Amino acid sequence: MNISTLKAISPADGRYAEKLENLRGIFSEYGLMSFRVLVEIRWLQCLSEEAAISELRPLTSDIKTELNHIIDDFSINDAERIKEIEATTNHDVKAIEYFIREKLGSKSEAHKLKDFLHFACTSEDINNLSYALMLRSARVDVLDPLMRNLRDKLANEAKENADL
């Protein structure tokens, strides 16, 4: 199995790679990048709805859709682009900000919006929320279904073998 270093979790990816497949997209560097993109964009969307920030107007449906596509369509190519940017910035979270700016392009509506990317945030603000989302995703998307399946199997075994 050939695993991209962007999606490797740890040395456990060797021997136990197949057992970690469901966690790779969450806990890998790729996963962290995708959650950072999510946090940055959701923060920007929240800022746009704050009336006290008169310099930033509410987002049009087109720009909301575009921002949501950046999140929903995040790919390994996007992660590789972020790594390229990071090679220049030498800063992982700043590379996320530049990536989003790049994805928004040069549309007039996006110009004002770009000024508010990462506004009033530290890298730790972005990272802390991203790590929390990673843990929630692992619990909800991977662990909870496995635990429900195990519970159901144990309940069935108990019923089938109740007379033993």
Task: Describe the fold and architecture.
The protein has 164 residues and is mainly alpha-helical. The chain is 73% helix and 0% strand. It starts with 11 loop residues before the first helix and ends with a helix. The model has no long low-confidence stretch (mean pLDDT 92).
Distance between the termini: 44 Å
H and E string:
HHHHHHHH
DSSP, total strands? 0
SS element count, helices = 8
Low-confidence stretches: none
Helix content: over 70%
- What's the main sheet like? none
Q: Please state the oligomeric state of the protein chains shown.
A: single chain
Element layout with pairings:
Elements: H1 12-15, H2 17-27, H3 29-48, H4 61-72, H5 76-89, H6 92-104, H7 108-114, H8 123-160
Helix pairs in contact: 2-3, 2-8, 3-4, 3-6, 3-8, 5-6
Salient structural properties:
elongated, 8 helices, mainly alpha, 164 residues
Short characterization:
The chain has eight helices and no strands.
